Amino acid sequence: MSPYLAAEDLSMFGRDPWWLVVVKAVFCFAFLMVTVLISIVMERKVVAWMQLRIGPNRHGPWGMLQSLADGVKLMLKEDVVVKRADKVVYVLAPVVAAIPAFMAIAVIPFGPAGNEVSIFGHRTTMQLTDLPIAVLYLLAVASIGIYGIVLAGWSSGSTYPLLGGLRSCAQMISYEIAMGAAFASVFLYSGSMSTSTIVEQQTDRWFVLLLPLSFILYIVTMVGEVNRAPFDMPESEGDLVGGFNTEYSSIKFAMFMLAEYINMVTVSAVAVTLFLGGWRAPWPVSTFWEGANHGWWPMLWFTGKLLTLLFGFVWLRGTLPRVRYDQLMKLGWKVLIPVSLVWLMLVATVRALRNENYDFADIALYIAAGVLALLLLSFVADMFRGKAKQAEQPAEAPPAFDPMAGGFPVPPLPGQELPPVPRRRSRRERELIVSGGPDTQGDGSLGGSTDGKEASDG
């Protein structure tokens, strides 16, 4: 076995009594709900601050209870079910979207596995459970949540929700590939898919420093995964009214909003676990304080990092405009996926050389030589491509664009031009044509007759 593969020790999990498992599960649920309430108020406050507004300031001190007021308002609203909806799927779709969002938090470590805390006199780990393939479990749960959005769009019996559901499905497929490649880089460096082991492997250096491109790729893909601005095309009010949840109201609409914010918390927790050291204290604190990573302190560091990433979501929403759907797909398929695959091969090469005990300077030299070789090949290919284009004969002019060729008007594609529109005759010209006046003689195209002048000359 390679010395760089981590030895997984998951024996401390699965030993808790059933009531303690229930207590920890309730804590995870409460942690998500409280974080969502804080996130909603923080989003409205931060966006108001960025736009020089006051923001919520009516409910509770400084408006801190605005989230509770919104929840009560949504629950008391009229629950409408549209006639054309598939009733069973229409009701189950919000549940399918919300439940997987809660499931992902089960494998997130809030503290070190070896540092047990006391709960009602029992020593237990600060994590509900862990798996040898915990990160794959996270990917699977995140993929299930998209079914709720797709089914909501389909079951509503309306065009706009259906388009929003299809957009969300295509967006998830294109962005989850790059996300999986970013995860694979972490697997190669940590030698494990267990979340607790991955955090343990970041004792000396966080993976955000070792794998900066993987972290950037994951940050971009996690924003697209949860359909947040600037990638909120599935619920774009500019062209889809409200997207997949257009036909929903009351508590069902609230469940979709809850699922969105819980997914924000989940993907942020995954980013903290895989790249930002998890529950570990930041570098300045961990150097001069030995007890920073013991007791209940790790949960404080984890929550602080989590709220920082949630602030990043709000910051993006308040600063970046929504992209077009074709730009969204182009970024996913033509930029993120190729870059993530090339980066993954580079990381795998470095790990293979490190496992063979190559020196870091030699590895850097090999990588630099490979990059220079690729640049040289690209330069030579561009030269030959330019000469080939010069040797080509000029292409024939494309046929004129006919917007009515299919029986109904269509807009021109890039490179096509609409035929010139005939000039509309003015009222004066139409009167002269009808009367055959003398002003029509100078413009034969107006169709004026010269019979009147010939008669007068005669």
Question: Could you write a compact summary of the structure shown?
Answer:
This protein is mainly alpha-helical. The chain has helices spanning 18-50, 66-76, 87-103, 134-155, 159-190, 195-200, 207-210, 212-225, 237-240, 250-275, 283-288, 297-319, 325-355, 360-391, 427-435, 451-457; strands at 117-119, 122-124.
Question: How does this model look, in words?
Answer:
With 458 residues, the protein is mostly helical. The chain has a domain at 78-113 and 131-374. Helix content is 60%, strand content 1%. It has helices at residues 18-50, 66-76, 87-103, 134-155, 159-190, 195-200, 207-210, 212-225, 237-240, 250-275, 283-288, 297-319, 325-355, 360-391, 427-435, 451-457; strands spanning 117-119, 122-124. Helix 3 (87-103) runs parallel beside helix 10 and helix 5 (159-190) packs parallel to helix 13. The chain is globular, with a radius of gyration of 31 Å. The relative contact order is 0.10. Mean pLDDT is 82; it is low at 1-5 and 440-458.
- In total, how many beta strands? 2
Overall radius of gyration? 31 Å
Unreliable residue runs: 1-5, 440-458
**Strand order, sheet with most strands:** 1-2
**Structural class label:** mainly alpha
Q: What is the distance, rounded to the nearest whole angstrom, between the alpha carbons of the first and last residues?
A: 115 Å
How can the largest sheet be summarized? 2 strands, antiparallel
Question: Roughly what is the average pLDDT, rounded to an integer?
Answer: 82
Transmembrane segments: 18-42, 88-111, 131-154, 175-194, 206-224, 261-279, 299-319, 331-351, 363-381
Protein name: NADH-quinone oxidoreductase subunit H
Biased composition (Pro residues): 409-421
Main location: membrane
